[in-house]
Amino acid sequence: MCGIAGIFSLNSKLNPSWIKQMTKSMAHRGPDADGNFVSENEKLALGHRRLSIVDLSAAAHQPMFSHCGRYVMVFNGEIYNYKELAAKHKIKANTSSDSEVVLELFVLLGKDFVNELNGMFALSIYDKKEEKLWLFRDRVGIKPLYFYWKNETLIFASELKAIKQLKEEFALSINKKAIYNYLRLGYIPEPMSIFNEVRKFPAGSLMSINADGYKIESYWKLKDKIKKEQFTDEKSAKKELDDLLKSSVNYRMMADVPFGTFLSGGIDSSTVTALAQNISETPINTFSIGFKESSYNEAKFAKEIATYLGTNHHEFMVSYNEAIDHFDSILKAYDEPFADSSAIPTMLVSKLARQHVTMTLSGDGGDEQFLGYGMYNWAKRLDNPLVKLFGKPLRYAFSKSNQRHKRASDMFGYTEDATLPSHIFSVEQYFFTDNDLKNILNPDSIFALDINETEGKDLGLNAQENQAFFDINHYLKDDLLVKVDRASMQYSLETRVPLLDHRVLEYSVNLSSDLKIKNGESKYLLKQVLYDYVPKKYFDRPKWGFSIPIRFWLQNELKYLPDKYLSENVLAKYGIFNIAQVKDIERRYFAGEDYLFNKIWAIILLNQWLENN
User: Fold this and answer.
1) Which helix (H) or strand (E) holds 270?
2) Each residue of 434-444: pLDDT tens digit?
């Protein structure tokens, strides 16, 4: 796992020191080595920070040159099937690293080489002969990649902060449309970033750039993998899923450094951990975190599962004060407004795990593939013609009830099916709906989500499957995977996601929804696989998210945040909000409507970001 950066100007020489500035800002992504390459004409520079995971020798450092000397590459990620690819294509490697195989495969196959890779990656290859640059990002978007294009200059990097290093030479302006999207979703979706001039490189895509300009093309889309016939036979589907998951986990256990798994005690992390321990000949490391003051603590469930599996378990109990101390780290790590408060415990468990290992496996991706979220039930309810017919009176009735029902009343406040997935998500995650933002934003800050919300339905998926398809394409990629990447890499810890092997995704998207939710039980088929390794009794409890009690902290330990960042002075400074409306939400929150906490949190983080940029 690493950090990459590059600058390519089509019409002028660049300052060689720029690439060093960029890689220095990402030292946390690669503390083991730092390298750069500048072309003879000084129009291209590539930079790399290395976190050594496979082949720890200096021979595997980057930038890496092809055997023929024509190509140079910087690569962030891991390719798990690289040994098979080397054998298949008769590549004689001088190292045992996946990077060398990746580069030589490109030499052999050109841009089509990317279709043979199983892994997570963002990489760039420069053809010195043709003076042509290539960029590639993995299918799901596990590894990050940002790019700037203006005045025939391309700048790219693993993190936004690296591009920001050059803001004096390449000016950046705040993207108000991105702010609107952030307030709706809690994150900024691809392709936008917080800056107008910088975009997130699309997942499953490649770019070529030369004197004629640049071109982006897709090489993989999940929608293209949906078949007309779904898998419906439970016995054969379970066997196939088990085989795919074992293969995926086995691939991702490849490392020349100590590794472990994040174990929360939930279905997804327990499945990954159980399979890893089943494959390993020795006890694997497992890591969980709990809060000392918490009235509900899942760490005890993780410990029970670890004991049953016989892992080398590490349980970290931290205080709320330790968690609060990481608040400022959010801005440092994420570079743009990011309101997922579970970033804080993810940072904590990453920091603590790094004391023992250099690589971890996580369980991200299970809920989206196997319909594990409560919002999928809402998608089904709201698709009911009777609910659509009586939506307005239902909303009114719920709004006059208790807090839980008041929040639920917002679900009935949508206006058209085309925006229903984002509406359900916003309400379920306690963020702002479209109607909310029309009230609290000034007119020049009101936009619309620029994302396809009906793609799944257009492909024949039912309401629940369409909601999950929306989450895979947006929430999973632009929130959950971003959260884990930044939190773990902040402490130079690589995290791999076995449930997001593209083979697993291509299989799960074609499973009948009756195998995902059966007799009211969500994630049914995934659980059947898990129960062959860990008895069902260990999971007979309510689902609990990996979160911290922000709703209570903002009224107590973190009250200084609303006092400062919701003040009329700060709100007036940027001209984004209707101040009276924001102050009314704040008043209601402190008067007892604490379900408004995430709206408060989102505005605080936005204003803090604006104050510091």
Assistant:
1) helix 267-279
2) 999 999 999 99
